[in-house]
Structures are given as structure tokens and as C-alpha cells.
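look at this fold:
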Amino acid sequence: MFLRLIIYRIKVLLKNRVLLFWTFAFPVVLGLLFNFAFSGLDDQGQLETTKIGIVSSDAEKTENFETVLYSLENDGKPVYQGKQMSKKQAVTQLSDEKIAGYYEITPTDISLAVSQSGIPQTIMEEFLNQYLQQTTEIENLIASGSVNPQAISEDLFASTNYVAEGHQASSYSVKSFYFFTLVAMAIMYSFMWGLKNANDQQANQSANGMRLSLLPKNKLTVAIANLLASFVLFYSQSMIILAIFHFVYQVDFGNRWGWILLIYGVASLATLSLGTLIGNALPKLGLQQKISIGVGLSMAMSFFAGMMGSQSLKYWIDVNLPLLGKLNLVNLISDSLYQLFYYQSLNTFYINLAWLVGFTIVFMLLNYFFERRVQYDHL
């Protein structure tokens, strides 16, 4: 009976051509436009040596930092060309666009200052993140007293693996970067299927809701069957879209396909559950009103994730309000794909994956809370 409920629900959803357009045809068409717009950017955007500034108040710390920084190469050319300068000189040269940014090194911290968002600035930010992560690990090992500090220093700063990681990040695909946000927005649109489920489960919203309320089945069983049906349908759609992006539009997603498929699955469950939650939490609003709320939320998340020419805002949020970035589903999804593509280390990816799993669990629990409280005076 449970399997029949799932099959029946898939058949019902397949008849909804409007939602099929927005969750399948629209991302494909928008991807085609993205392909026309960004297909030449990778050829134009081959990385040249980036000029940067170093503002230092700690000579030893700066020496270690520069050792790693200047060891990074791209096709035999150094990725960075740096010069030590005063803070005033750095600010002036950054304002005049003579340097892409500058690192400020103090005895307690290393920070990055940029005036715009772009490929060099993004790579500079990630290099700093990776460097700080590794140096923190070293400091912890030294503090434990179980290792030789000099040996650790040599292993880190002469490590070919570390240089390779920085080099991988420098093999930047601008086209892939933009498509990651499109993929995240497309996955976010699955909220429409979740919203449709909630609408069809409510007797005061649809005739389907009345019939489902009269079934001699537990409401939770029906809700789970509907969720699984919409997940199977949307995930199948997403795999076709992913195949079109990769094989037809020639978008490079990297080679970590297992993790990519997992992100698609977890993110789809999260956004489906979010759509159901919108429907359950606002039972007195009509379906179109709820869809408008969901679309508005999706567009806002996409904007803050850097999709609409707002990369500088996304960068500012990542630096100054990182929690806000973690609360943005579109940003979590696009960043996860970004991390899988560019970085060898998966530490930050695991954090994003944990946030997505957490959102999925919270949304499902809230849906259960709302659905078990639903009662009707009459049908």
C-alpha cells in the first residue's frame, strides 16, 4: 500500500506541467543563457601573476607566510608577486587598483583586504583560509609537546601537497563558478514540490486533501509517501539537468561525483521539506501566495549567494557575517559544489554538509509538529 501511494503521487505530480516547467525546463533554459554568456570567460581568464601587498609587523611570521605564498605556481609562473609596504601605501595602491589586495600580518593575526570581488581575490581569500587552518594545526601539535617544532615547520612550508592544493585552486573555471549558483537555485526551486504536497494534504486547500484525509491511513504515512514521491521525481529531474550541464553545456564539476550526488540528495530533501513547511505553517494562505513567498525567499537567497552580480556582497557576508551565509541554503549548496571542485581538503565541505543535514532534520521535525496538530471540524 505504501509503494502504491508513492507511485500514485508521482503520477499526480507528473501531470503538473507548470511545476515541471519551473523545476526542470526553466533551469535548462537559464543554463543555456549562462552558457552563451560565460563560455568564453575561461579562455579570457587565464590567471596572470597577481600583484599583492604585504603589510607586516611581525618579521618571522611574515617570512614563513611569504615562503608558502611565493612557492605557488601556475604553468611555471608564480601566482603572486608581492611587496612589503606600509599600511598607508597598501591602502593607496589598492584604491588605485595597482594591487589586487594586501595581507596584513600582525603577531596575533593575518587578514586580507580587497576592494572588489574577482578570481584573484577569491584565490587570495582561500589561500589565507588554508594557510591559517594548517598553521593552527601546527600550533596545536607544538602545544601538545609531542613533536619537534622545526620538523613540523619544514614539513609544512616545503610540502609539495600544500603547493599542489594552492595550484589546484588557481586552475579556476569562471564558467563553473557561475553554474554552481544556478545549480543551487535550481535545487532551491524544489520547494514548489514540497509546497504542492502540503497543499494536497490539507482538506481546506484542495479536493485531494479531502480525499487523503478520508483514507484509512495514518497522516504521517501519507506525508512520508508524498515526500518520497516528490524526492524521486525531483532528484531524477536534477540528474537530467546535471547531465545536460556537464555533457551538453560542458560545465566542469570536478571528479568527486559521489559527493556531488550526495549534496544533490541532501539539498533536495532540505528544500522539499522547506516547501512543505511553508505550506504547513501558512495554512490560511492560497497556493499562489505561498509560491510567491517561496520564490521571493529563493531569489533573496540567490542574491546573497552572489548569483546576480552580487559577489562582493557574498564575500563581505562570508568575512563579516559567516553565520548568515550558513543560514542561506543557496549559499550552502553552491559553496559545497565550489569546495568539491577547487579544494583538496574537504573539511569546510563537511561543515556545509552537516548544516544541510541539520536543516533537513529541523524542517522535517517542524512539519511533523504542524501536521500532527491539524484537525478539521468537518469535511
Observations:
- DSSP finds 18 helices and six strands in the chain.
